[in-house]
Amino acid sequence: DVKVTQSSRYLVKRTGEKVFLECVQDMDHENMFWYRQDPGLGLRLIYFSYDVKMKEKGDIPEGYSVSREKKERFSLILESASTNQTSMYLCASFGSSYEQYFGPGTRLTVT
Amino acid sequence: RKEVEQDPGPFNVPEGATVAFNCTYSNSASQSFFWYRQDCRKEPKLLMSVYSSGNEDGRFTAQLNRASQYISLLIRDSKLSDSATYLCVVNEGGGSQGNLIFGKGTKLSVKP
């Protein structure tokens, strides 16, 4: 069974803090993604990566950066958290069957 | 950015009912299509792919109409456990996974 894990289910951070969200997949997938999901806005793509050390901006990259040093790990970084980054963050990896496998999500609250 | 549109619902139906969701997409070059299911406070999971010829998986039937650019999902004999949000997903193709476009979802609530 494909497994995508995220480092935290719930996280509370203060405005201005640097935040790291970690995602690990165990299926040797090349493509990995970070989304945020907000009520009424659906899933929005922040960044994706199709190979180690490669990254591409999604629809809403502002305020975020990513790191892909190893194939199985894709990290999302909030350099200076703001309250409008309070959201559910979902990591996904992609296999050859065109199915995206999602992690359980991290609910981040920035106060 | 190309769009995928869904009726947000909620669709409130009794157990045993048949319910249908539609989804429209704007990019005629889209290549593959999916329905995902998302339970409350959980991650989305693939429900089924949608093929040009239509496909069925138990009580679920998916149809694709390329000419009209819409996808449908039919659920027969609804169960309480079908209550969830159903996401329409379109792959615009080109091999890059940045081309997966998610609809905002249709909420289904099945009542006893």
Written description of the protein model:
The complex is a heterodimer of chains A (111) and B (112). With 111 residues, chain A is an all-beta fold. In chain A, strands 2, 4, 5, 6, 9, 10 and 11 form a seven-stranded mixed sheet that branches. Chain A has a four-stranded antiparallel sheet with strand order 1-3-8-7, with no helix packed on it. The radius of gyration of chain A is 13 Å and the shape is globular. The model of chain A has no long low-confidence stretch (mean pLDDT 93). Chain A has no helices and eleven strands. With 112 residues, chain B is mainly beta. Chain B contains no helices and eleven strands. In chain B, the strands form two sheets. In chain B, strands 2, 4, 5, 9, 10 and 11 form a six-stranded mixed sheet that branches. In chain B, strands 1-3-8-7-6 form a five-stranded antiparallel sheet, with no helix packed on it. In chain B, a hairpin with a 6-residue loop joins strand 4 and strand 5. Chain B is globular. The chains are: A mainly beta (111), B mainly beta (112). Chain A binds chain B through residues 31, 33, 35, 40-43, 45, 48, 50, 56, 58-59, 90, 94, 98-100, 102-105, and chain B through 1, 8, 32, 34, 41-46, 49, 87, 89, 91, 96-98, 100, 102-105.
